[in-house]
C-alpha cells in the first residue's frame, strides 16, 4: 500500500505555498501551525495568520483571507472559512476522507511512513541493581523505556537498548562473602532482598565478616579470577530474576542488552585522562572533579561532578560519563536517551554538560524523567509492613485482580480466562503507568486501573475484542475497499483512524507514550459511538455493511497495533 503524509502535513504544505503566492513569504510547514481542531464541525485549523500578521504588519484576518484565497486544496477540503481573529477552519471533504480511509486497508503500517532520516538511538532503561529485587520504582523505567523502544523502532530508527545494571561497587565485597557463606551451606538465593539484608546485617554486626568483605572488594577490583567467578554467579542469579520479571511484563530486554556498570570499567581511566587533557578537572579534597558551568547549590557554591574519588575509586558519575563516551564514540549513537526517575535530573544535566565540554557529545542527549508511583496515602508506594513493593509480587496481584474482572463478563473457559487475565492484568499495570504525563507522580489503585470504562487498557482491550467479535460473526469482510461515510459517527471514526500517524509522531517525538494512549482511547470511544449508531451486521444495504465491516477492521488493527507499540496485548476474545 502506498504511504502518504498525514493530514496535517498535507494541509501545511498547501498553506505554505499559498502564503508564498499571496504574501511572498517563505514558511516552514511547522510555521503553518496546522492542528486538529477542538471545535465542533471543524476538522483542522491553521493558526498562522496571527503571528504572520504581526510580522508583516497587516491585520491577521486580512492575511488569513489572502491565504485562503490562494489555497489550492486539490479536493482535500473545502475552501477554509476565516474565523475569529484569523483562524483558517478546514472541513475535509467526504470523498477525500473515503479514499484516504480506503487506502489504509491492507496496509500493516496503517498509512504511517517510516522516517526519512533514521537515527541511531542508545536507550538506557530498566537498569535495576544486582542482588536486589526489582521494585515498583523499576516498573516505570522498564515500561516507559520499552514503549519508547517500540515506538522509535516503528518510526524507523535504530534502537540500541542498554540495561545499566548496578553490578559494581563496594557492596559486592559483602555480597560475595555472604554468597560464599550460604553456598557452603548449600543454600540457593530464594529471595534477593533477604539475601542483601542478611549480608548487610552481618557486615554491620560482625567485624571479621566486614574485614573479609573489604578485602574482597580489593580482590574484585584488581581482577582476581576466583572472585570474579563468584561475582558472575551473583550476576547470573540476579539476571535470572530480572528476566522472570521481564517475561511476565513483556519487556523486550534480553541478556545481550546488559551493559552494567562493570562494563564501563575499562573506559574509566581514559575518561579521566581525556578530561584532564581538556583542562576540565580540578582537585578538590583529593578527588578529581569537574565543575560544569551553571550548576550551583543554594548557597551559590559550584557543584562538582566527582570523576575519581579520593581513594582512587570511581563512582556513579564517572560511569555515566563513560556511557556517553562509549555510545557516541564507539557505537556511533546519534541520540542518547536515559529513562531514569526524576530525582536524577541534575545528575544527567551535569553529566551531559561535562560531556559537551569534553567534546564527546555533539548530538542529542536526554534524560527522560518520570514521577513516583504513590500509594493510596499519597506517599511513595510501600507494603503494609513499610517495605518497598516487589515488582514480581505486584504483577502476580495484578493478574489475580484481572481474573476477577474477566470472570464477571467472560464467556471463555477457565484456561482461556487465565491467559486473558494475564494480558488484562499486566496490561492494566503498564497502561496506568503510560497513560499519564510521565513526569507526574501517580497513585497506584487497582479499581481505577482495572475499570472497564474510561481511559484504561481494559476498556481498549474490550473495544478491540468487540471489533474481533463483529468480524467473526460477519464471517469475513467482502473483497473491495469502498468506504462510505454517511453518518456523522462513521465520518468521525474514519477521521480518527486517519490520525494514527499524527498521534504516533506526537508520542514519539516528545517521548510521551501517553499521547498515544489518549489517541487510542478516543478511537475506542469513536468506535463505540459508531457501533451504537450504525448497525454493522444489519446495515441497510450490502454496500454499507461492507463499508462498516471495513471500518471495524481498521479500528481493530489500529487498536491492536497501538497497544502493541505500548507493549500491551490485545486478545481476540475476552
Ligand atoms: N541502577 C540505578 C537505579 O536503580 C539506575 C541507573 C540508571 N542509568 C544510568 N545510566 N545511570 O537507580
Overview of the molecule:
The chain has 574 residues and is of the alpha/beta class. It has helices at residues 7-23, 48-56, 60-70, 94-104, 136-154, 171-184, 192-205, 207-221, 225-249, 265-277, 316-330, 345-358, 391-409, 414-434, 446-449, 457-474, 488-498, 500-509, 513-533, 542-565, and strands spanning 34-36, 44-46, 81-83, 87-90, 120-124, 158-162, 281-284, 287-290, 305-308, 335-339, 364-368, 373-374, 442-443. The protein has four domains: 7-92, Arginyl tRNA synthetase N-terminal domain (Gyrase A, domain 2, 2-Layer Sandwich), CATH 3.30.1360.70; 171-252, no CATH class; 260-370, Rossmann fold (3-Layer(aba) Sandwich); 391-565, Isoleucyl-tRNA Synthetase, Domain 1, CATH 1.10.730.10. It has 20 helices and 13 strands. The strands form four sheets. It has a four-stranded antiparallel β-sheet. Strands 6-5-10-11 form a four-stranded parallel β-sheet, with helices on both faces. The radius of gyration is 28 Å and the shape is globular. The two termini are 31 Å apart. The model has no long low-confidence stretch (mean pLDDT 94). One of its GO terms (molecular function) is arginine-tRNA ligase activity. Its EC number is 6.1.1.19.
Fold blueprint:
Blueprint: H1 7-23, E1 34-36, E2 44-46, H2 48-56, H3 60-70, E3 81-83, E4 87-90, H4 94-104, E5 120-124, H5 136-154, E6 158-162, H6 171-184, H7 192-205, H8 207-221, H9 225-249, H10 265-277, E7 281-284, E8 287-290, E9 305-308, H11 316-330, E10 335-339, H12 345-358, E11 364-368, E12 373-374, H13 391-409, H14 414-434, E13 442-443, H15 446-449, H16 457-474, H17 488-498, H18 500-509, H19 513-533, H20 542-565
Parallel strand pairs: 5-6, 5-10, 10-11, 12-13
Antiparallel strand pairs: 1-2, 2-4, 3-4, 7-8, 8-9
The structure holds arginine.
GO molecular function: arginine-tRNA ligase activity
Keywords: Aminoacyl-tRNA synthetase, ATP-binding, Cytoplasm, Ligase, Nucleotide-binding, Protein biosynthesis
Subunit structure: Monomer.
